[in-house]
Amino acid sequence: MARKLHAFVALLVVSLLIGLAAQFPAIDPDQILQSMQSGMAGTLGSVAVVVGLGAMLGRMLEISGGALVLARELLRWFGPTRAPLALGVTGFIVCIPVFFDVGFVVLVPILHGLARKAGQPLMKFAIPLLAGMAVTHSFVPPTPGPMAVASILRADLGYVILFGLLAGLPAMLVAGPLFGRFIAVRVPGRLPIEPDTELSSIENPPTVPTVAALIVLPIVLILLNTATNAIVGDATLSAWVRILRDVVTLIGHPFIALLITTLLAFVVLGSRRGLSRAQVHDIASGALEPAGVIILVTGAGGVLKQVMIDTDVGRAIAEPLVRLGVPMLVLAFLVAMIIRIMQGSSTVAMLTAAGLLSPVIEPSDPSPELRALLVIAIASGATLVSHVNDSGFWLINRYLGLTVEDTLRTWTATTALVAVVGLASTLVLSVVVT
Description:
Shape: globular
Low-confidence stretches: none
Distance between the termini: 51 Å
Radius of gyration: 22 Å
Helix content: over 70%
């Protein structure tokens, strides 16, 4: 019987086998092991801290009821007739700091309540929420996938966030409210699992401005750093301007931006809501358990990347495709798409595609803007076609009461639309900024 290896183990095994095959018959074990070690260290050096802090921030938003508060308020602002759009925006915002599966389970009660109150098909509300979450899960750091790919391709995180938002919004609108309205007539859906997360059961939930500020703050700080560097650069500056630039550079680094935000979350979502230091500590510690798996998988993706670079395997695979004349952004999309379809995980697909393409991209020394667009192109390809080998497929199948066929018609089609519109937006942006 065939068994599916955990992604962390599988990536390490594949990396080792590639290193051995590339050197055969004159195998140098020290070189292979050095490549694996440097790949793990190089990737986790820029990703582990961000993923860990992001997990803590997301967990605080979840436990405090912040995600539900934001969803309820957005629904009130948009009104009942534009509830699908409100849910798309909710998913788009909530999934920036909160992991996809956690955010979905937390917000399922909102879907149930809306469908029951409006007397309309569940999928009319579920698809926009899923589309919004799928977009920011893949397109907008500090989620692990785009964060790791930005590290591998040495892309400026501010540009990645900016382009991820610009490409993600049209993708959310097309794959969310528009497609949701179309597919809900054909696949209404139902809710077989009664969720236990209700806003009424959460004591002293935070206010909407507090939640919004905590989600937006790290993004604003990172973007401010990118904008400052783009405007000021290395020009000769007065002492005070140089000090100001250095302060912005410090607080705009992803590590510090998320550290500041997470510490604020501990205070405003924790101690000020009556939680003890021990309770906040337990929440933060619990958040690191799922984050640990993601960090290890991300590090293993870095190992694969480094082995491919050091053995020239990545170049040997990617260069024939480049010689076919396929534009680099389209090539990045296609490589990530193929890997996603084969193995299921969008994060692993992004990491593997970045590892394959990095040796080909570096000699041309692309601009910061193009590097960031390549991250979004890879993210788009890695979003395409979530199907039966993806754990997210079965999560949605279970919580929305769908058959396998209907999950393919709804969720899989949603991811396909997100990917295609994301690529189209990336190509348009490339014309504008390069």
